[in-house]
Design brief:
single chain; 125 residues; alpha+beta; 4-stranded antiparallel beta sheet; two-stranded antiparallel sheet; 2 helices; 6 strands
Length: 125
């Protein structure tokens, strides 16, 4: 019995950890690495959307062609960095579900956080 309880606790812990890195909108899952457009298509407009700064990301390899000497017929690899916008989305799913904060760097989802229980949106009289 004790072994079964431990196993159940481990499974629940794993599911809770996975939940922090994914967001369920309807019957679809949003995960790290998705583009902003994909998230908007799945979850709709967030309660709050704002640019919170910029960061520098390492790009892949860009190739450059030497211009000064035509005898080079191959392109030389060159590492590069790029500055990208960091955007934050807040989703409020109401008082019975946790609010979620999604952070995008250069349009790519890099972090999903839980913020605590949501709230009823204010109604305009």
């Amino acid at each position: 019995m004790l072994h079964a309880t431990r196993t159940l606790l481990v499974i629940v812990g794993i599911l809770l950890m996975q939940d922090a890195h994914a967001l369920r909108c309807g019957n679809k899952i949003v995960r790290d690495g998705m583009h902003e457009a994909e998230v908007l298509a799945i979850c709709g407009e967030p309660t709050l959307r704002r640019d919170i700064g910029t960061t520098v990301r390492g790009g892949g390899i860009r190739y450059r062609q030497p211009h000064d000497d035509q005898r080079y017929r191959y392109r030389l690899p060159e590492r590069f960095l790029s500055e990208v916008v960091v955007t934050e989305y807040i989703y409020n799913f109401g008082p019975r579900r946790l609010m979620r904060r999604l952070v995008f760097e250069g349009g790519e989802l890099v972090r999903i956080e839980s913020l605590g229980y949501g709230y009823h949106p204010k109604k305009n009289p």
